[in-house]
Amino acid sequence: MKKYILSLAVLSLFYTKSDACAWSDPDYEYFNLFTQSIIKDKSYLPFLLTYSNRFYGDYKGNPIPDDNIETWKKFFNNQLNYSETENLVYKISMNDLNALKNGTPTNPLLQKLGTGFYQKYKEGIDYLIEAKYLEPYMSINYVESPDSFYSNGPSKEQNATSIDYAKTVNALTSLYNATRNPEIKQRYGYQLVRFNHYTRNYDAALEAFKTYIEPIKQKGTVYFMALDQLAGAQRGKEMNADANWNFFQVFMNSKDRKESAFISMKLSDTASFSNIMKRAGTSDEKNMAYFLLGYEGFTDPIPLMEKMYEINPDSEILKVMAVRSINELERSYLPIYYYTSDTSDNVYIQKGNTDDHNETSTNTKAKPAEVKKEEKLSFWQKIVRFFKNLFGGSKSGSANGDKNDQSDDELLNNPDRIPFYTKSGYGYDEKTKDYLNELEKFTEKTKKVSKDEYWQIADAYLKFLKKDYKGSSEILEDIKTANPEYLEEIKRMKVLNDIVSHPKIDSEFEDHLMKDYAEYFVKKEVKKDSTAVADYDYYGETPSTADFLKDVLANRYFLQGEDGKSFLMNNKLSDLQYNPNSSLVKSVEDFYKKPNKTQFEQQIIAKNMDNVGNIDAFFSMIYGDRAMKQADFEKAKSYYEKAQGFAGIPRMNYDWTDKGEKITPKQYAAGEYNGFRDISNLVFGHNVWESFGSPETESMEAEDYSAFPFIKASMNKLELADALIQLKKIGNGTDEKAAKANQLIGNLLYNTSSLGYYRQLFVMDIDNTNGGKYDFWNTDRKNPYKYYYKNFLYTTYVEPDNFDLAINYYQKTLKLSKDKEQRARALFQMASAEQGKYYQYEAKNAVNISYSDPQYSEKEQAHQTELDNIRNQKYRTYFALLKSQYADSETMKGLAGSCSYFGYFLKR
Questions:
Q1: How far separated are the first and last CA of the chain, in Å rounded?
Q2: How confident is the model at residue 299 (pLDDT cuts 50, 70, 90)?
Q3: What sign does the CA torsion over 374, 377, 380, 386 have?
Q4: Cβ contacts of 528 within 8 Å, gap of 6 or more
Q5: Helix (H) and strand (E) counts in the chain
Q6: Among the listed ranges 168-177, 273-282, 869-878, which one has the minimum average pLDDT value?
C-alpha cells in the first residue's frame, strides 16, 4: 500500500521555527516598526526572521532576481528588458521559437525582435528550443524503497526516464561539440549533468560535470546551476560531505537558489554547517559559514557576528544577522496586546460549573458576542489561557486599586520605558536587556567603520527600544543617504521618537499630530470592486506603525483619565454593548458631548462613534439598564423615556455568497427582542427547570398577574419600568397583594441577574448565551482595564449583581404573606440569590496553587473543603429554613424533584 505521508524529519526542516499550533501566527504579534527588508541584497530576503514559515516570504515588491534570466539578458546584449527576457526563456513556446528560426514568427515579442534576431543569436535560440523540449521531462523519477514507511506520493507521469536515455545523451553531446559559444556550450553540459542526475545515473552525472563543465573556465550562473545538479548526484551516491560543500558553493554564489541550496545542505548532512566551517578556506567562505551557523542556531548570534565583523564589517550577511537580532528584540518589546487587566489575569466562576446547578445548565465558556475575527494571541498566551480556562485559572496581580495608583513605569507609552514580554512570560527579562545592550554596542562599533548607513539606522532604533529618544533622534538627523528604503525607515523612526517621548497628549499636541503626521492616523479610502470575491484573512492586516502609534495614544489618554478617548482609539461606540460598565460609558458620553473638539478628536477619534442609530438613545439605554440592575426604577424610567428612539442593539449579519463575505446590519423582526421592546411577562415568573437553551415558555412559568393589569403580556422597557414603579408602590402596603408585588419585583431582579434566564435584559445583549454576563469576576475595581481598551472585546466584564436587592424584596413577601406556599417559593428564590452571593465570595477568595507543587492535590482539596464549610455555614441560610420549616409544603416537594442542586442539599 502506498504511504503518502511526508517524513516528520523532513517536515521539521521546513517548520522548525514555526509554532506547533496552527492557529498561532507569531509574525502578527508585533508592530514591524523596523523593516527587515531594507537590506540591499534582496537575495537574502528568505533568511530574515520569521516564526511562521521556514523562510521569510514577505518581499513587499522586492522579488529575488533570477540569476538565469539576468545571464540571458546579458547574453542578448540587453536588447530585451528583464520581463521580456523572462518571457522568452520561460514562457514562449518551442513552436514559437521554431517559427522564429524559420523566419515566420507569430509571437508579438518575437515579431518585434525581427527575423535578424535569430541569426544574431542562433546558438542561444537553438539551445532554448532544445531546453524547452527537455523541460517537461526534467524531474527525478520516484522510486519507493521496499522498507520505506513514508513517501511523497506517486511520481509525475512524465519524468527523466520517460525519454530515450541514449538518444538524449547523444543529442546533447553532439550539440555540445557543435557549439562555439562557451556559455551556451556549458548550458548543454548542464543539461547532461541534470539529465543523468534525474535518471539516477549518478556516476555519469559526476563524469559529465568533469567532462563538459569544468573544461570551460567560466564560473558564472550556468556553472553553479550545474554544480547544484552535481551535488544532488553526489547526495544520491551518499557522498554527503562533497555534496554539502558544493551546495554551500551554490548558496554562496547564486541569488535565487539560496533557499533550495540551504535545504539541500540540511538534507545532505545533519552536521552540515559545522563541517562547512572546517572546510572553509577563504575569508568569504568563512564569513558565509559563520552566517549559516548563526542563522541556524539563533540563540545568541553576537559572538558569531563579532567573527564576521573581523572578516568584513561591510558584509551584507552581517546586516542580515543584525536585522534578525533587531527583529527578535522588537518582538519581545512590542507585543500587540497587553493582557494585564484584572479580569484577564484572575479567576472567574461561571454558572453551570459547580454541583450546585442542574445538569441542564449551560456552561459555555464566556466569550464576547460577535467578535468578527479571533483575537491575535501569542502561542504562549494561548497555552496559558487554555490551562486557566481548563482548570479555573489562578489569581495573579492585585485585585484592587485603580489606574491612578499605577507607576509611571508600567507601559510602553509611558515615557520611562517600553514593556515587553518574553517567551516565559511578561515583564522585565535581564537576559533580554543584556542582549539589547550587547547588540547596541556592536552597532555603535560597526557604524564607525562601515560605509553603509544601515548601521546608523539600526543604532538609532536600538536606542529607541532603550527609551533614549533624544539619542535616537540625534543619530537620525545626522544620517545622509539617498536610499529610498532607508529614507522611509528614518522618517518613520523620527515620528516614533517624537510621539512616544511626549509626556502628555493635549490639544496642542493633537494639532501637531494632524499637521505633521496625519498620514499615520487618517486611513486612506480604498475603493473595492463590488464584483470581486472577498478573500478571508484569518489574522487580519499585519500590525503596522500606525497601529503602534494608535496604542501609544490610547495608553496616554487612559493614564490621563480620558477613558472615552482611550476607548475610541481602539474600539467603536457600538462595542460598549459588550462590556457596558458605567464609568467608561460616562467618559465616552462626555467625549461625545464635548464642544469644540480638536481636528484630531473630530477626524480620528470621533469617527469611531459609528452608526448605532440614535446615539443619545444608545447612551440612555445603557444608563436605564444599569438603573434597573440597581433597582432604581424611577431613574430607569427617566432614561428609557429618552431611549424610545433606540434603533436596536447594533449587530451585524455575516453571510457568505458567491462574491465573498456579505456584511449587513441585523434587522430585528416584529416581535423579536431588540434590546428595548418585546419583553415577555415571564420575566416576572419563576423557573420550571434551569435550562438557558430552552425556549422561555419551557424554562419559565408565569405568576398570577390578575391583580396587576399593568403587567402586559409583552412590554418594552419603558412599560416594564413603569410596571415596577407601580409594583413598588403596591408593595409598600401590608396585605397579600403587597406581598405578591414584592415577590414579583424580587423575581424580576433575580431573573435578570447573572443566574437568571433573562440575564441579557439589562446588559445590552440579545439573548442569554453570549458575553460575560454569567461570570463572577474576582475584582473590586470599577474599571478592570489597566493599560488601555485594546482588548475590550475579549475581556468580558459586567458590573457585579447586588443579590441583596432581590433578597430584600423577598423578605417583604415573607413578612407580609400568610400563604405558606408563597412563603416557601419566596424562600427558595432567596436561597437561589444567596447562591449568587456565594459565587461572588468564591471568586474573590480563589487561591493560587502552582500545578507544579507536589502537594497541589492536598492543598486544592483543603481549600475546597474550606469553601464548602463557608458555603454551608454562611450561604445556605434560606435552604436551611426551607428544609426545617417547609418540608411538608407542595412547593418543597416539587422543588426536590425538579431542582437537582436543591435535592443534593436536602440529602446532606
A1: 62
A2: low
A3: negative
A4: none
A5: 39, 10
A6: 273-282
**C-alpha dist (Å) from residue 461 to 272, 416, 563, 879:** 34, 16, 31, 65
Q: How far apart are CA 433 and CA 215, in angstroms?
A: 55
DSSP β-bridge partners for residue 660: 657
Please tell me the least confidently modeled range out of 621-625, 712-716, 730-734, 841-845. 841-845
- Here the cell at position 809 is 424584596
Amino acid at 218: Q
Contact yes or no for 302/383 (Cβ under 8 A): no
Task: Classify each residue of 693-713 as buried b or exposed e, where b means 16 or more C-beta atoms within 10 Å of its C-beta.
Answer: eeeeeebbeebebeebeebee
How long is the chain?
Answer: 908
User: Could you read off the pLDDT of 785-825 as tens digits, one per residue?
Assistant: 778 888 888 777 778 899 999 999 999 999 999 999 999 99
Tell me 660's DSSP state.
E
The runs of H, that is alpha helices, within 633-716 are 633-642, 696-699
Amino acid (one-letter) located at 41: D
Query: What does the pLDDT look like over 459-490, one tens digit per residue?
Result: 999 999 999 999 999 999 999 999 999 999 99
Q: What is the rounded distance in angstroms from the CA atom of residue 877 to the CA atom of residue 834?
A: 8
> Is 60 exceeded by the pLDDT of residue 540?
no
pTM above 0.90, yes or no: no
Q: What is the rounded distance in angstroms from the CA atom of residue 764 to the CA atom of residue 149?
A: 58
Q: Using CB atoms within 10 A of its CB, is residue 657 exposed (0-12), middle (13-18) or buried (19+)?
A: exposed
Collect all residues with Cβ–Cβ distance below 8 Å to 660 and sequence separation of at least 6. 532, 533, 534, 535, 536
Pairwise CA distance, residues 38 & 479, whole Å: 15
Strands 775-777 and 348-350, by their bridges, are antiparallel
Q: Within a 13 Å sphere around the CA of 551, how many CA atoms are in the beta-carbon half?
A: 22
HSE of 170 in the Cβ direction (CA atoms, 13 Å)? 5
The alpha carbon of 589 is separated from its chain's Cα centroid by a whole number of angstroms, namely: 30
**Using CB atoms within 10 A of its CB, is residue 763 exposed (0-12), middle (13-18) or buried (19+)?**
buried
